[in-house]
Amino acid sequence: MSPEDNSVRTLSCPACGGTIAMRAAGYTVTLACEYCGTLIDATDPDARIITRYHETQASLAIPLGTRGTLRGVEWEAIGWLQRSDGWAIWEEYLLFNPYAGYRWLIAQNGQWTLGMMLTAAPQRDGSDMIVAGRRFSPFYSGNTARVTRVAGEFYWRVKVGEQVRASDYVRPGFMLSLEQDEQEKSWTIGEWLAPREIRAAFDVAPPPMWMPGMTPLAHQPSPYARRIKGWWPIAALSFLALLLLLTLFGRAMQPQTFAVTAVPDGPAVSQTFGPIVLPLGRQAMTVEATTPGVEQGWVDVDVAFVDRKTQDSYDAYALNEHYSGRDSDGYWSEGSRSQTLKVASLPAGTYDLVVDVQAHHWGGAVSSVWDQSTESEKSPVEVVLTVARGARFASNFWLAVLMILIPPLLMLLLHILFENARMAQKDGSPADADDWLQGMQSP
Amino acid sequence: MQTVACPTCGAEVTFRSPALPVRVCDYCRTLVIRDSRGASKMGEAAVLPFDISPIQIGTQGHCFDQSFTIIGRVRWAWDDGAWNEWLMLLADGTHGWLGEAMGQFMVLREVELSGSLAQVIRRLMNDTPVQPGESGNIAGHSYEVADIRTVRCIGCEGELPFTAPIGWEAVSVDFRNRDGRCASFQKDRLGPTLYVGHYVTLASLQPRNLRLLPGWSLPADVA
Does B47 contact A at CB distance below 8 Å? Predict the structure, then answer.
């Protein structure tokens, strides 16, 4: 194979003899043998050993040489670093494309971030930093990041133990990092990658779903923020649909009024009214039973909608009563002369309304006051029945509203838990409502 | 365009730029210098080591508000790496440099070292040591010293504004500013030179005739 047929150069590791690839010839200055970890000077034609190691091969989530397409560019993983700041350990893959340069793929806690080095410094605004109109707030500062393991090739003289001072600024979904040593300052902007995106690119294990108790990345966007926002249109639509249903089917239409008269303690009165036509199926009916004249007694009202065709019966029952008197505290009264009955889900059809009424006079304990008025109380009691199609089941309505609201409220709670866990790592004050709101911002 | 015969091998050596005096013979790597009488030989250029730069002689594009063609290259190395400086022949007949290091690109043009110069530049001209982080005003913008290196030429090709013999050493100082501008000061056996420019992306150059690299496809934004 002539040199021009292949972009990859291979050489033998001067320490272990393993065949190692050089994929960014001309850029690469240090090669770390992926078998034994020995550092090799790639600018030296004799592949001089810089530092000899005898490490076992690290098993990498993305084996070096793997290619994947992220944001429309094909990248090859050519280098790998493990770094630590004493608290956290993370891995950084160096990605290369000869036409697009270098990127970083940073893995921590199973989450992935795509990093790009900036060629211009961010603008400072108070304690915040601004890059291309995007504001970043300070998160960590003054940490020392140390290289703990290396494999593959790098465009600088990487070595184990190499340290930089790091400060991080975040906004949901993004992290801006400053790394500096005595020689130089470099700014890198990192973008959190959605599980689907990183899996499609490099076929890595999907990051774990965040659960209360887990520590999110400093810049990891709340998985609930998007869901809450996604829920509002659904909630709004459901609410509108609910209102529509309520007005279409719940509206009381064409009330019909019937009257029955019964004598207290007299015989039960039974009367049939109709027809009542229900053109639409599964309708609710409202029957308002009013007994304006009942006094010192009660009226049992049984109503039944009887389908003329099938003789199916849909029943409801009301008890109207009214008592009053005068005692040492003055005038008193109790009971209700009116009740609203709801009969749910009547099939379409033609119905008769069968009404059974029995009026009673309260005759248990006889008092002088009542004895005097006995005659008027024994006069016939009129029962007025107002029948209307449809019924507003207010309790059902509120139940539905609650059901619509439960998921977003639950997600809001999870969002607050997530943001608190994320902000708990921040230098300085703990999370407050302001941080929860900031966490709702779109990446 | 002017064509002369290589003083060593006799092959045709073509100068595309009207102004540049030096051309590396494509066949025998002789450094050919042209003058009023014809062409003479000025040593031999080193063989360029293999690299996978996406730029090649003949790559065309657009920057400094005009089109350019790449006509030459110098490769520089220092203790911890190497980079390419591609010579751009601009449409107006002048030239500029397309620097390529660590996967990043910058375009630079020479500015005159005259008039009122920043103190840091004057000290560099006097070989007084400077430190990274020192700042100074260059061509109306504020810059910081990013790094200072002793570099050596490890190879060249095509047309050049100077002879670049093997092992030629220079002091190179890179300046950066916060808007993405950059400047480069260089001092060698020929004296000090200063270049200013800015970082670019390959796509922003609207490049044509990029080098095709086996195993890689041209990204959509430069294809």
Answer: no
